[in-house]
Amino acid sequence: MTVKMKYFENYRKLRYILIEGPYEPFENLTAFICNKKMKCKFTMGKNGRKCPANCQCTYRDMFIIDCRKPRKSRQIPPLPIPADYGIDLRFPGHQLIQLPNNTLPGYIKVLKLDVSDNNINSIAIHQLPKELYTLDISNNPITTLDDRVADYLSKNSLNSRHSFGQRSIRWIVYCEQTHLLHLLHTNSVSQYVFYEQLNGKCSYKCKCCFDRKTQSFVIDCSSKAVDLPKLPNRIPNKLTLIFGNCSLKEFPKNLTRLLKTHNITHLDLQENYLKSLDEETVDFYNNHDNTTIELSGNPWNCICKPRSFLFFLKKRNPAEYRMTMDRCGIPMCPDSCVCCLNNLNSSSLNVDCRGQRLKQLPLLPESATSLDLRDNNITEINLQSLDILKNKILSKGLKLSLSGNPWTCTCDLFTFTEKFTFFIQDFKEIECSNLGKRLEFVEESDACPSYFIYPLLLFVFSMIIITVLNAFVYFKQPILMWFYEHEICMSMAVRVDLERMKKFDAFLCFTHKDERLIEDYVERLEKGQRQFRLCFYLRDWNVGASIPECIIQSVKDSRRIIILMTKNFLESTWGKLEFRLALHATSKDRCKRLIVILYPDVENFDELDSELKAYMVLNTYLRRDSPNFWNKLLYSMPHVT
C-alpha cells in the first residue's frame, strides 16, 4: 500500500515521518521522510523554501544544509527553516567576502556554521545568528575579531573544545581585546593558535597579545605553574615575559639563552620562590640598561655567592634589597657596598665593596667581620680610619682585602700592614704606586724616610720664601703698577691719599708753545678709564686774573703738579715760576707730589737756577720716551679705588 504524504500537510510541527514501504511524495511537506536507517529526505521548510540550488539538505541529528559543491558562490542564499530544528550550514570553499546579516531568511536558525576556505576578512556582530554555538572560519584572511563578536562567541559556548575552528588564521591580538584573548586562550588547549606578532603559537597556559603602549609582544603566564614556553627562532617584535606568581623555585635554565637570542625587553619574576640569579643572567642585565626586570616578592638569599646578584639587586630594586637585608637581620650597609653572609647559619658579616671606584674607606657596620676593598681608587687611609680598622681587627678579627688600588705607601700604612699582615688576605698582591713595587718588598727606610729630610725641606722652603720676597722688593714698583692696571690685589697696589677733597687731581704746567701736547693728556687722563680732573690755564683760569695768583691757586687746589719739561719750558720765565712755586708747595705739604715729565729735546738743565737744578739732579723724573710711560704716569696719579 502506497502512503500519500499530502495527508501530513497540516502537521507543521511534525519533525520526521518513518516509512518502510512505498509512498507518494508531496511538495508542500515540511517533515523529513526517513527509512529505518534514518536516511531522510527533505522537501520544503516551514517558511516555504526548498533546499538551495547546488546544496544537499539532509537530516542527521540536525538539519544539514551542505553546500560544498564548487559553485564558488559570493553570498549565502536564503535558507529553508525546518520544523522545530536548528540548521547546520556548511558553506566552505566558496568566495564569500562577508557573512550575511542575520535578517537573511532562515539564517537566524543556524546553530552550526562552517565558512572555512573563503575570503572573509571581518565579522560584525549583526552577521552572526543569535544561537550559534559552532563556528569554523579556518583559512580566511581574517586577522582579528571585534571585541563584541569575541564576547558573543565566548558566551554562546564557542569557547569549548572544537567549537571554534580557526585553522591557519594569523591572529593580530592587542592586549585591550580581553574577550578575544579569552576566546583564543581557551581554544589554544586543543588547537594551534598562530599569533602574527609572535610569528608562532602561544603556550596554552599563557595569554599572548601586543601592547600598543610599549610596542612589545606580551606573553603572560602569571599565576600558572608553567615551564618556560617555547618561542619561535625569529620574533619580529620586542618581548615582555610575565611569570609573576608562577611558583618558580629557580631561574628557568633556558631563559638566559633566550635573553641573548630574542629581544626580551621586560621580564617579570615577581611573587615566586626564587633565591638567586645566576651570574650569566646578571651580566646580561648589567650590560643592557634598556631592559627591565621585576624581582620583588621573592625570598632572595643573603649569602655572598654569587656576589654579583646582590649588587645587581641593590642597583635594580633597592627596596627589595633592603627587605632582603632586613629579613636576614643585616644592619644598614654602606651605599657603595653590599653586605652578605657566608651562609644562612653564619654570623659572619662580609662588606663587599669591590670595583665601586671608591676613593676613601666607607663607614662600616659594627658587626662587620670582613671588608673587601679590591679594585677601587683608594690611595691612602687616614690615621682615624686606620685606628677604626685596628679596633675592629682586635675586637672582631676583621679580615681585609686591599689589592687593586693605587696605594701611596706612607709610613702609617706600612706600620699598620706590617703589624696586621695576618688579617690582610691579599697582602702579597698590594702594589705601592708611589714606590713602584709590591708592599711585601717595601723596607721601612722606603716608607719612613730619616728625619734629616724634614729640616732640609724646611730650609729649602725658607730659601724659596726669601727669594720670592727679595724679588718682590726689587720689582715692587712694576708689580704694583701691573696690579693697579689690571685691578688685582687693589688693597696692596693702591696708595692711601690724604688729600681727597681737592678740586683737581692734577695741575698741568706747560708753556703756550707746547699747547699741542695737552690733547694727549686730556684724552688719556680725563677721558680714560680713571677720568682724572685736570687743571690747565687754557681752560680753567679766569680771563684778566693775575698770573702769579692763578698759579698759586691752581697749585693749592690740586693733588698733583705735572711739569711738562720741554726745551720751551726751560726757556720760559712763567714756566720757571710755575716750577718754583710747585717746588715750594710740595716742600711745605708732603701730601702733594710733583711729577716732572722730561721730554727728549731737553739735553741739560743749565738754564735753570741753582735751586731748580739741584731738584732735578737729586730727584727722580719721568721720561716722556719711556716705553711704559702712560702706565707709570697713571700709577703716579691719585689712586681711585
From TrEMBL:
Pfam families: TIR_2 (PF13676). The chain crosses the membrane at residues 451-475. It is found in: Membrane. InterPro entries: LRR_dom_sf (IPR032675), LRRNT (IPR000372), TIR_dom (IPR000157), Toll_tir_struct_dom_sf (IPR035897). Keywords: Leucine-rich repeat, Membrane, Signal, Transmembrane, Transmembrane helix. Gene3D superfamilies: Ribonuclease Inhibitor, Toll/interleukin-1 receptor homology (TIR) domain. It comes from the Eukaryota. SMART domains: LRRNT (SM00013), TIR (SM00255). It is a single-pass membrane protein. Residues 502-637 form the TIR domain. The keyword Membrane applies. PANTHER family: MSTPROX-RELATED (PTHR24365:SF530), TOLL-LIKE RECEPTOR (PTHR24365). This is Protein toll-like isoform X3.
